[in-house]
Design a protein that fits this description.
The protein is of the alpha/beta class. It has seven helices and eight strands. α1 crosses α7 and α4 runs parallel beside α6. The longest helix is centred in the first third of the chain and has 18 residues.
Amino acid sequence: MASRTKTVAVVWAAYGGLSDVGKMAAMHGQLMTERGEPVVIKPVALYDGKKDSPTHGLEATDVVPSERVQKVVDALANTNVEIMDVNAKETEEKLAATFAGAHAVVATPGSRQPGNISRFLALGTNKIISAMHTAGVRRLVLGSSMGIGDDFLPTTPFGLFWAGFLRIFLRAAYADLKDMESLVFNTKPGEVDFLLVRAMGLAPEEPVMGAWRAITAPGQGVWDLAHKNVAKEDIGRFMFEEALRPTRHNVAVTLGHRDLAGPLKRLSTQQ
């Protein structure tokens, strides 16, 4: 009889807001394991060996209050997080060994933030996809950002501001995110069963709601400045559950606060 246990590899970059979502996904998976659910996680932290010292970055998780950071640290304290230099030649081989036997991969390999934060979204994703191919894993749930591609958000002053901000002040992040998404969309048919998750605002203080709003087509939501952010924990949970029980295939979704106004207001909070 086949085992019911599902194994999910979770890969995050050590630093950055988008990267924190991967840590939250791993936390969610580990808490499921501790509750006795048939789930096993394989956590991996990537760092830039040209700039940074080896680290899993858990203590650097940017959420407040500090109890939320400690919850991540405590949940993953005994999970043997593998720490890999994204630039090392052997990293792809190591990732493939880690992915062996996994049902899916959740990945947030970088950051969209300004400043001197290491950024390797495309490089990390390229190695992750190659390693998945070697290991025979097809399901990939990958973190990205609103403002990249068609995020289905309506044109508003704030939306225009964010698009301009990305292209002018976050040019390196914008280019890296675009290259990362291109890698996924250009995979051969059937090679990867992917879901791109384009996060809206990720303010550290955004409270956990246990729900979210997924926008997949025009007209499903409108800009609501009161709900422009979504908790990192909520996006992490969404990504992990899509890895476990896929409902969307080879598409991108924009994920936001559960109370984003618009037609989706009438639907379940976890659509």
